[in-house]
Amino acid sequence: MIMPTALGKGIYPPVLTFFTSQEELDLGTLRHHIHRLAESGIAGYVVMGSNGEAVHLTDDERAQVIAAARAEVALQSRTLPLIAGCGAQSTRLTGALCQQAADAGADFALILPPFYYRGQMTQTALYEHYQTVAEQSPLPILIYNMPACAGGLDLDAEFIIQLAAHPNIVGVKDTSGNIVKLARIAAAVPADFQVFAGNADILLPSLASGAVGCVAAFANIFPELVCKVQLLFEQEKLTEASKLQASLIEPNAAVTSRYGVPGLKFALQQLAGYGGIPRRPLLPLNELEQQKVLDSIAPIRSSSD
């Protein structure tokens, strides 16, 4: 088994995948983005997640993205962990994607549960799926609980706690938004099992409930601010942390929850000069949507300049 870079606490941006105007991979912009994020205070990177449009890529493109990300991370002054999304609808393909990610240079695999045959995804079927993948994967794996991208399938706390006993299952990204569930998981899992929130708008309450960080799409555009929430929490400056957290809620909702990948790419284009288009069937924002995003990020943009 590959010995990975340590998976520590902190903020992990789920990195976007960039495309040319002809919807071909733009690996140069990907590497530029990773370089830009490197010194912002983040703890590592996630590629091939939902914000990385993994479902829009071929197998070969997935490998290219992971390899390009690894090549850029290798140039940095500190080696940050690289997590790759490897979830698929069959156990066999999930295992193959874990092997592909390892070959391309990832340190960890993030596994969304299979959901296409939703009615047959019993606790037994899902448990056997994760156990088999954990046994076969050359990479340590993190459970990815995101009902919005899994046909409404929401892994419950007891199920995640049960899986946490496996030595090759090392963490969870929970994007359900259920703080009570997150607290229950954090209190019951082994000390070396890492619990991450899945959205910047609940970062502070998640940290207070036992999370060690967040996989936050909003950190693609305002990484320093998202990292600062956690830093203030760790410094026990809770009033400042609460004020900053509150300021992130509306712009985070506009950029990520409301408009998804197109909103995130548009905001990045405005703030950093690159972002580009999503791959179809996703469409770029229309003018009204663009203005709503600009209005939502204007206060936080001016305060961070």
Automatic annotation (TrEMBL):
<feature type="active site" description="Schiff-base intermediate with substrate">
    <location>
        <position position="173"/>
    </location>
</feature>
<protein>
    <submittedName>
        <fullName>Dihydrodipicolinate synthase family protein</fullName>
    </submittedName>
</protein>
<feature type="binding site">
    <location>
        <position position="215"/>
    </location>
    <ligand>
        <name>pyruvate</name>
    </ligand>
</feature>
<dbReference type="GO" id="GO:0008840">
    <property type="term" value="F:4-hydroxy-tetrahydrodipicolinate synthase activity"/>
</dbReference>
<keyword id="KW-0456">Lyase</keyword>
<dbReference type="InterPro" id="IPR002220">
    <property type="entry name" value="DapA-like"/>
</dbReference>
<feature type="active site" description="Proton donor/acceptor">
    <location>
        <position position="144"/>
    </location>
</feature>
<dbReference type="Pfam" id="PF00701">
    <property type="entry name" value="DHDPS"/>
</dbReference>
<dbReference type="InterPro" id="IPR013785">
    <property type="entry name" value="Aldolase_TIM"/>
</dbReference>
<comment type="similarity">
    <text>Belongs to the DapA family.</text>
</comment>
